[in-house]
Design goal:
243 residues, alpha+beta, two-stranded antiparallel sheet, elongated, binds adenosine-5'-diphosphate
Length: 243
């Protein structure tokens, strides 16, 4: 539809702009790093001549600046990585393995937030063709959102299912839910209802799922919780459809 196309175009121009800004930040960050090093070296020479409190305080300031530069650099790098569209590097993947890996990775945060995890994951699921790292990011973002909607406490239910054509993965939470009027904005970049949120998580999820020939759906009951459903095409679907 025209509406969807306009939305897509707006999304990509915002992303392009954001990527440009992030890229531009790279140069001043480099320059800051180099000059901080220069100042640090000069100060070291001074220090051996006149070792006093002042130079010690300056050294400490330089160290803090260097740390902050590294932090900014990390933010920029992550951001660029997050919004860079990349074609998936497809290989046969067992979804159950990947989801368990992601759960292990988030185990600590889930426990700290007092969230109970109920994962009914079939290991007989048909394989799908997927980019393992990209779908890890998809699962991670969805579980992260579920945690943020619930804690402290709550329960996260993960289920798998398949039919003739697709493999499905469902993530149900008992969190705040999503208001009807917000449902349409979910996948827009920078839509967030959180303090300190980036509003990029679900946009990335949708992009990756589309590039896998799959889909993401969200159903929600405000006050009760949310179910996010991922649909992956089965590995041999195309072949079977041609027969
Ligand atoms: P962020 O997490 O940085 O806000 P996302 O793109 O991941 O960005 O999510 C966008 C918004 O969608 C969130 O701010 C929140 O309002 C809503 N949302 C996403 N997942 C859930 C969920 N499981 N429960 C309730 N709200 C959700
Ligand atoms: Mg998020």
């Amino acid at each position: 539809s025209t509406e969807a196309r306009i939305e897509d175009e707006r999304t990509s121009s915002i992303l392009l702009l954001a990527a440009g800004v992030a890229h531009e930040l790279g140069n001043p960050l480099n320059s800051l790093t180099i000059h901080l090093q220069l100042i640090e070296r000069k100060l070291k020479k001074l220090k051996s001549a006149a070792r006093d409190k002042e130079t010690a305080a300056l050294s400490e300031s330089i160290r803090i600046c260097q740390e902050e530069v590294l932090r900014l650099d990390g933010i920029v790098t992550n951001f660029l990585e997050a919004i860079r569209p990349r074609p998936p590097d497809l290989a046969e993947v067992n979804i159950a393995d990947v989801i368990e890996e992601v759960l292990r990775f988030q185990e600590r945060e889930l426990a700290d937030r007092g969230i109970k995890v109920d994962a009914i994951i079939s290991h007989d699921l048909p394989a799908v063709m997927a980019d393992r790292n990209q779908i890890k990011q998809v699962f991670f973002n969805i579980i992260k959102n579920a945690m943020e909607a619930m804690s402290p406490g709550g329960s996260l239910r993960i289920k798998t299912r398949s039919d003739d054509e697709n493999v499905y993965l469902l993530f149900g939470d008992t969190g705040s839910g999503i208001k009807q009027e917000d449902l349409v904005k979910l996948f827009q970049p920078y839509h967030t209802t959180k303090q300190g949120g980036h509003g990029l998580g679900l946009m990335i999820v949708q992009r990756i799922m589309r590039e896998h020939g799959g889909q993401v759906g969200v159903e929600s009951n405000p006050g009760l919780g949310t179910v996010v459903t991922l649909q992956f095409p089965k590995k041999n679907r195309r072949v079977r459809m041609l027969q």
